[in-house]
Design brief:
The two termini are 21 Å apart. Helix content is 41%, strand content 14%. It has one domain: Rossmann fold. The protein has a six-stranded parallel β-sheet, sandwiched between helices. By secondary structure, the protein is α/β, with parallel strands linked by helices. The radius of gyration is 15 Å and the shape is globular. Helix 4 links the parallel strand 3 and strand 4.
C-alpha cells in the first residue's frame, strides 16, 4: 500500500531538473505543479527570474503548466496571474478533482500530464491515487507552515518505511 500511494515515479532535487527535453521523451504535454515549496518558498510572493525562464522554456516547447495549490485564492492568484499561468486554489489535494480539472482546462489527457510537488501526503498521494505520473522535488525551503510541518513528520516515517523495504533508490 505504501508503495502504491506514496512512492513517486521520479525524484529530483528541484524543478529545474525537469526539462522540456526529458518531458518530451515521455510524451508529456502538461504539468500540474504545486506552488509552495515546489516552485518557490512558501512565503515568497513572486517567481524568481530563474523560475520565470523555466516557465518560458516550457511554453516554448509547447508544454502547458497549471498551478494546483491548497493555498488560498489571494496567495495563488498574486503569484500566478503576473506570469499568465493558469491556477487552481484551495485544491483540497490529495483529492482528485483539482488534478482532473487542471487536465480538462489544459485540454489534455491524464496520460499526457505529470504532477510535480514537494509533499507525499498531498501531491504524490493525490497524483498516484488518480493515475498520474508523479515527480517529487526536494522542498525549496527548510521551513514550512504549521500544517505542512505536521505532514513532514508523517512523510519522514513513510519515506523511512519505503527505504527499509528497498523501494527508494535515492538519497534524501
Amino acid at each position: 500500500m505504501l508503495k502504491k500511494f506514496f512512492l513517486p515515479d521520479e525524484f529530483v532535487k528541484n524543478i529545474f531538473h525537469i526539462t522540456p527535453e526529458k518531458l518530451k521523451e515521455r510524451n508529456v504535454k502538461g504539468i500540474i505543479t504545486d506552488l509552495d515549496n515546489t516552485l518557490v518558498e512558501w512565503d515568497r510572493p513572486n517567481a524568481t527570474p530563474r523560475l520565470i525562464e523555466w516557465f518560458e522554456e516550457m511554453k516554448e516547447h509547447g508544454i502547458k503548466v497549471t498551478i494546483v495549490s491548497n493555498n488560498n485564492e489571494r496567495r495563488v492568484k498574486l503569484f500566478s496571474e503576473p506570469l499568465g499561468i493558469p491556477f487552481i486554489y484551495k485544491a483540497r489535494k490529495p483529492m482528485g478533482k483539482a488534478f482532473n480539472r487542471a487536465v480538462r482546462n489544459m485540454e489534455l489527457k491524464k496520460e499526457d500530464c505529470v504532477v510535480i510537488g514537494d509533499q507525499l501526503l498531498t501531491d504524490v498521494l493525490g497524483g498516484n491515487r488518480n493515475g498520474y505520473h508523479t515527480i517529487l522535488v526536494v522542498p525549496v525551503a527548510s521551513s514550512d507552515g504549521f500544517i505542512t510541518r505536521f505532514n513532514r513528520q508523517v512523510e519522514r516515517r513513510i519515506l523511512s518505511a519505503l527505504k527499509r523495504k528497498g523501494h527508494i533508490q535515492w538519497e534524501e
